[in-house]
Amino acid sequence: MAQNAPFSSDTLMDLLRTVQDPQTGLSLASAGRLESCTVDDGGRLTLTLGVAREQAPALSALCDAAAQKLQTLPNITKATIILTAHRPAGAPEPTAGQTASAAARPASAPAGAGGHRPLGGPAPAPGTPVLPGVKTIIAVASGKGGVGKSTTAVNLAVGLGMEGLRTGLLDADIHGPSLHRMMGAKGKPDVVEGRLQPMQAWGICAVSLGMLVDEKAAMIWRGPMVMGAINQLLSDVDWGELDVLVVDLPPGTGDAHLSLTQKVPLGGAVIVSTPQDIALIDARRGVTMFEKLHVPVLGLVENMSYFCCPNCGHNTELFGHGGARREAEAMGVPFLGEVPLLADIRASGDSGVPLVIGAPNSEGGKAYRAIAHTVATAIQASAH
């Protein structure tokens, strides 16, 4: 164990042992392996624990309380606990050529079996089809965070439901799952015969990792675990018969995007950006990525296109205006529409009532409905 802290391993583990899961009695000390402990000049302690992959979600929920215990140590001003999960020795990384069943085997399988199942549970039987009842899968992506991608995904999915399509919504933003809150979904999904049941809200069904883990838990997962979690959210959920499944991807171009395209055929992608050049640079990368993966880009959405004053009705272009439209024209992809910057949009996310439901006649509500109508038309055209 790497350590520069003036504390013994026994002292640290004794403190961790005082915080236990009330249902299982599990603690970070009993389930974790101390890998390192460092203290910087400001008294900030960082503790790294190796844990079993299948126990990571439950143990993450204990980290905040355990860190508070560590802060009682002499001269410690702040404590942080980082959980790492390693593949068992001898188990190789799954390759792009592996079958879905091979990639879905549990982490506890014999050496050489491969696959990550960070959410636990039994692996599907070999040859089990993925999303057999889903006709079309649409990804919502952005080149960078903070541009309103998840808000767009929620309102697009609910808007598609309002267009008469049987719609599902999957939150694949593993490190920052938020769609459960934005959809107003409370509690945990039911499990029937080993398969997770999506929650029903606002005319669609939805699943988010945020429904399964503590909201305060930090998802410090390596790439293979992210890919494993997405595979499980696709294959371990009873999505049923859907016309379209909307997938909210993490920002950027990384493991989650590659895992999704390798696992299922995408019917298209919607790219969300704000008008300014710095955001459009990243949006351009998103378009290029999907083109390289042979996924059709359904179009760009310009979010925060302008600020509409609620008092006088004057529009102010806080971040510029029209950048996404010009970028779409330059790249030869459709432009889906402009969404204004409104307090109602922020409030809808916090309240759990999507804008297309809570304020359908607002500037933002009408913009999202128009985007959903355009996407629905594209989906229906591709089905014929």
Give the topology.
Layout: E1 2-3, H1 9-17, H2 28-31, E2 32-39, E3 44-51, H3 56-60, H4 63-70, E4 78-84, H5 100-103, E5 134-141, H6 149-162, E6 167-171, H7 179-182, E7 191-192, E8 195-196, E9 199-201, E10 204-208, H8 223-235, E11 242-248, H9 255-263, E12 268-273, H10 277-292, E13 297-302, E14 307-308, E15 315-316, H11 323-331, E16 335-338, H12 343-351, H13 355-358, H14 363-382
Parallel strand pairs: 1-2, 3-4, 5-11, 5-12, 6-10, 6-11, 12-13, 13-16
Antiparallel strand pairs: 2-3, 7-8, 9-10, 14-15
Helix pairs in contact: 6-14, 8-9, 10-11
State the gist of this model.
This protein is α/β, with parallel strands linked by helices.
Task: List descriptors.
384 residues; alpha/beta; Rossmann fold; 2 domains; eight-stranded mixed sheet; four-stranded mixed sheet; 20% strand; globular; NUBPL-like; ATP hydrolysis activity; metal ion binding; ATP-dependent FeS chaperone activity
Molecular structure report:
Residues 11-79 form the MIP18 family-like domain. GO terms for molecular function: 4 iron, 4 sulfur cluster binding; ATP binding; ATP hydrolysis activity; ATP-dependent FeS chaperone activity; metal ion binding. Residues 94-111 have a biased composition (Low complexity). Homodimer. There is one protein chain. This protein is α/β, with parallel strands linked by helices. The chain has 2 domains: 2-84, GMP Synthetase, Chain A, domain 3 (2-Layer Sandwich); 134-382, P-loop containing nucleotide triphosphate hydrolases (Rossmann fold, 3-Layer(aba) Sandwich), CATH 3.40.50. Helix content is 33%, strand content 20%. The protein has an 8-stranded mixed sheet, sandwiched between helices. Helix 10 links the parallel strand 12 and strand 13. Helix 10 (277-292) packs parallel to helix 11. The longest helix has 20 residues, at 363-382. The chain starts with a strand and ends with a helix. Mean pLDDT is 78; it is low at 87-114.
